[in-house]
Design a protein that fits this description.
With 79 residues, the chain is mainly α. The protein has one helix at 2-74.
Length: 79
């Protein structure tokens, strides 16, 4: 019976070691996922900033187009 108890204890120690290893792996995966999420958030911010700059450039272009059209009308240069 003592031999069986030793085998069970030995297996329990192996299971605990495996569980500890799995916990470490999960901790590392969680850390890496957090870094990926932070990277995605940064990319989203960059994309939003680019969109904002594009919208501002389009607005400036529209204003310039309006000014040119106004000048053309004043000079009667419309085609």
């Amino acid at each position: 019976m003592e031999n069986v108890d030793d085998i069970i204890i030995e297996h329990l120690h192996a299971v605990r070691a495996d569980i500890a290893s799995i916990k470490d792996d999960i901790r590392e995966v969680k850390t890496r996922i957090t870094h990926v999420e932070a990277g995605i958030a940064s990319l989203k911010r960059d994309a939003a900033h680019q969109y904002d700059e594009s919208a501002a450039a389009n607005a400036r272009f529209d204003r310039l187009t309006e000014r040119i059209e106004k000048i053309e009308r004043r000079l009667d240069l419309q085609s």
